[in-house]
Amino acid sequence: MAENPETVSTEDVILDVNRLTIRFGPVTILKDVSFRVCRGESVAVIGPNGSGKTVLFRALIGAIPSEGALKWTSGIRFGYVPQKVDLARDLPITGFDFLRARAAAGQSMDAALTQAIAAVGLTEALCRQPVGSLSGGQFQRLLIAFALMGDPDVLLLDEPTAGVDEPGQERLNEIIERLQAERRLTVLLISHDLSVVHQHATHVLCLSGGTAHFGEPRTILTPDLLHEVYGTPVAFHVHEH
Amino acid sequence: MALAAGLIGCFAVMRRMALAGDALSHVALPGIGIALALHIHPLFGAVAMLLFAGLLIWAIEDRSHLALETIIGVVFSGALAIGSLMTTGEDLIDALFGGAGMVSLAEIVFGVLTAAAVTIFVVWQRHALIVTLVSPDIARTIGIDVKRLNLVYLEMFALTVALGLRYLGVLLMGSLIIIPAATAKRVSRNLTQMLVIASVLAILVTIVGTLAAAHFQRPTGPFIVTIAAAVFFLSALWGD
Fold it and tell me: Residue range B95-102: average pLDDT?
């Protein structure tokens, strides 16, 4: 597990971000971003391209430095699924090679590997193939299986359905929803699909121009705010229950 | 030497530093030149310069975020020119292409210990190297110190180059690291296959090349690399 920058022990709050600022040299990417995440919540991070969504996630996992307060509750384990993996397609690395590397690094048992691939609906035959031959959706499920092997409390998913066809997107969304229910996971999800966000998220963090709006979907996904953030009218389909 | 070259080369090829690795081997030349000028064993000059180059590459990559291949290619190909100015005559030919002659006890001890260290490093750290190859950010979340791993890898690569300087020389040692691994990458279906095939190939071409060089009374380096390249082209013609 990555080292958490600081820890708090407030009941139910597992992540407390207060006035977080991230700069790359003279450029300020995020400024005074504040939000809290409680155990079991599903927080969607939205915003136009370049608004700092991935940068925020990289700060949350401790990969880049930040200013302000960023506090994970003590002992929290997180699994991270990145958006882009710059991997040559002809590498002789199989899904099993990748997952066994996780098992070795975390001293996990083989049972954890078997459970993880079953949880994301991958077969052993697919895991024996080179990762470059997997489809976008299959590779994303492999990354989620890798994250699950650490028995995480929190999953951070950076646009897991990007570049995946529609059936694959639906399957990934189903898997994430099922895992969250079965394992009582807290999920932080970067997504451009506002219909999915409206349907599944308990809270929405909307990043734009370095600043943030945070709240329940009904308060964030309003036509006026979305117009202000994206600079154009934004419509999305609302699933009726 | 060949075992270490085959193993470390697998990750060099997968990290897309094939050309960079070759250029890094040229850094040994100024070290050899300085050592000869100071009347100390050329191997130690080469090792010192290679280790320093590994550290320098790591530091530049960490601070500038330039592609590793760009840094090594641009900065250290110049080392070949500087080294050529500092080394002359027969010494230069031996340094560039490798030379026969008596191997000292110090060279044997250095070779055995370094080959063992490189082999143990790759076998022991292969899982961390794989996760870091796929995503350094994922590697960080499971507790891998990516910066330290990259530094140790580069230094192990540098030491592997030093291992083969006596037989293959500055110009060709990088090829023994890269070519068997590149061949193994083409024909392997998983990591274990790649590591085994690259190691066996590196050892075989070294043995066959050495025997051929002795038979024709020519330098060993060109024979070893020519055979390795021939095997690579055969694998390329064989298809996917």
Answer: 65
